[in-house]
Write a structure and sequence with these properties.
Length: about 110
């Protein structure tokens, strides 16, 4: 039976799955440029994983959803500040739109529970 961890984290057999959007610490959305949105999204992921008993260095897979694939390079610059070698396996997917107008990035991660 899956276990739900707040916020937006679910776990099963020691694997955690989380999807995050560019949410600031106060819960509001960051709808600025791709760098600001990427920073908020990955920071939200970091906080969610830590609250669920994991960490960014335990992320095994990351799916990045971008509304403009030209934003991939800017996302990668932010990504390098949150992750280290060996990099998690990842995929970048171009999408027509995300849940909220102005959102440019969303991520889904799979991580091992500590």
């Amino acid at each position: 039976m899956p276990t739900r961890f707040p916020p937006n984290v679910i776990g099963f057999n020691g694997i955690l799955v989380s999807t995050q959007i560019p949410t600031r610490a106060d819960g509001s959305l960051e709808l600025g440029d791709i760098t600001a949105q990427s920073e908020c999204t990955l920071q939200a992921l970091k906080v969610a994983l830590e609250r669920a008993g994991s960490s960014m260095d335990r992320v095994m897979h990351l799916t990045i959803y971008l509304t403009d694939m030209a934003d991939r390079a800017a996302f990668n610059e932010v990504y390098k500040r949150f992750f280290a070698k060996p990099w998690p396996v990842r995929a970048a997917v171009g999408v027509a739109a995300l849940a909220v107008e102005g959102m440019r990035v969303e991520v889904t991660a799979m991580a091992a529970k500590a």
